[in-house]
Design a protein that fits this description.
By secondary structure, the protein is an all-alpha fold. The protein contains ten helices and two strands, in the order H-H-H-H-H-H-H-H-E-E-H-H. A hairpin with a 4-residue loop joins strand 1 and strand 2. It is elongated and about 160 Å long.
Length: 321
């Protein structure tokens, strides 16, 4: 609507200016025609007077010529002024015409920005394959109670890991593979939505991969460590429970006992891309190699024990008696 009104106003202004130019041009041409007629009449009279008596009227003829030249100059000045005025109007019209699309674009952009500002993304659905209620967790995130939300997150992770994890109140890395993809995606989507994409497992994995999976660099990137020695922040007081902490700062995952749990989460199918056939084959080959290496080590150990004992303690066969 704003753009249409703007364009209509510009067209009205252009029509008014065009009509003004036409009127000015008509007046100038009428003046020029009158002056020309006057000049022609005066010139004829002058010729007739000169033919009848050149000596008598010489002084009058000079006066008439001077008057004609003055009128001609006046007409030329009027024409020049009118031409300059028309040029100026044309320049103004051109400027206004070129500025109109820019103004319209600006108005359209303002309307689009306002519409985008008033349009919010819908909240993630609270999906769960285990029947877990994520409403309390969502409400804590919505109200900006980050520390309490992280505590609830940790409890939910134990619920997804199973009864043993709930009893001990922490998750073992081998239990991560049993967590449903749907539930982990729901938890991550809630973190991401209420932090504006700042927190969650997905952003943590992205930063971890960007740091070449180097844990020390990754922990520094998400501001879990301080100082040149990379000392871990003390839980919970030294962590930053606010919306403007470093990207990936939440949720917290205990890495004091090692990074196996964190790595298992980062490589979970909910966040990691599907493995290719070559990657799966390489993993299977690595497992076979580990089994072969273990078998060889055990055989070497048994053979070494046998060599150390020697033949002592062996009974003589019956046929040698």
């Amino acid at each position: 609507l704003c753009v249409s009104k703007l364009k209509s106003a510009e067209r009205s202004k252009e029509r008014e200016k065009t009509q003004t130019r036409k009127n000015a041009t008509t007046n100038i041409m009428m003046s020029f025609s009158s002056a020309t007629a006057c000049c022609c009449s005066s010139s004829s009279a002058h010729s007739y007077a000169t033919a009848s008596s050149s000596s008598k009227n010489r002084g009058g003829t000079n006066k008439t010529s001077t008057s004609l030249r003055q009128k001609s100059r006046s007409v030329m000045r009027a024409v020049k002024v009118a031409a300059d005025a028309e040029t100026a109007e044309n320049t103004t019209t051109t400027t206004n015409t070129s500025a109109a699309p820019e103004a319209a674009s600006s108005a359209s952009a303002s309307v689009s920005s306002a519409a985008a500002a008033t349009t919010e993304k819908p909240e993630p659905e609270l999906k769960s394959d285990m029947g877990v209620d994520y409403a309390p967790f969502r409400d804590l995130l919505k109200s900006g109670e980050w520390e309490k939300a992280d505590d609830e997150h940790r409890r939910l992770m134990c619920v997804l890991a199973g009864e043993d994890a709930e009893d001990r109140e922490w998750v073992y890395f081998t239990e991560v593979k049993n967590m449903p993809v749907t539930d982990l995606k729901t938890i991550d989507a809630l973190w991401s939505h209420f932090s504006g994409g700042r927190y969650g497992f997905a952003i943590q994995r992205k930063l971890w991969v960007a740091q070449k999976r180097n844990w020390a660099k990754f922990f520094k990137k998400i501001d879990w460590t301080t100082g040149e020695n990379g000392d871990y922040r003390k839980f919970p007081n030294e962590f930053l429970w606010r919306a403007d902490a470093a990207p990936g700062h939440m949720p917290l995952t205990n890495a004091l006992r090692g990074t196996q749990l964190f790595e298992a989460l980062m490589e979970h199918p909910a966040f990691a891309p599907p493995k290719t056939a070559a990657e799966i084959q390489a993993e299977e080959l690595a497992k076979v190699q580990d089994q072969v290496t273990g078998a060889v080590s055990r055989a070497q150990g048994e053979f070494g024990d046998l060599m150390r004992k020697g033949l002592k303690g062996l009974k003589k066969p019956d046929w040698m008696s």
